[in-house]
Write a structure and sequence with these properties.
Blueprint: E1 3-8, E2 13-18, E3 21-31, E4 34-42, H1 51-65, E5 69-72, H2 75-83
Parallel strand pairs: 4-5
Antiparallel strand pairs: 1-2, 2-3, 3-4
Length: 95
């Protein structure tokens, strides 16, 4: 199984492809240079396979690489960051 996380700016979300099939996404709204994430969804066919964690990790790695910050209003993303404190430096207070 191969994972690819890429941003879809037209839909304001990061998507994960599993073997070239859309398996999930995490949606955001922009507030300046801050991405406010409010929803993450993984297709039920891919749940329990680490797809959600791979999606959030890939998303946060891309956000870090371009120097942006996040507000994790989505409970799934917030829980991921709580379990992976190496991403805590990306979090800013809600605007």
């Amino acid at each position: 199984m191969s994972f690819l996380v890429e941003e879809n700016p037209a839909k304001r979300r990061f998507e994960i492809l599993v073997d070239d099939a859309l398996a999930g996404f995490t949606a955001y709204r922009l507030s300046g240079e801050v991405l406010v994430f409010n929803h993450t969804e993984v297709d039920e066919r891919y749940q329990g396979m680490g797809v959600g964690a791979a999606l959030i990790k890939g998303t946060l790695d891309q956000v870090r690489a371009r120097g942006d910050r996040v507000v994790p209003k989505c409970p799934f993303m917030a829980a991921f960051i709580e379990r992976h404190p190496e991403y805590a430096d990306l979090v800013v207070p809600a605007p």
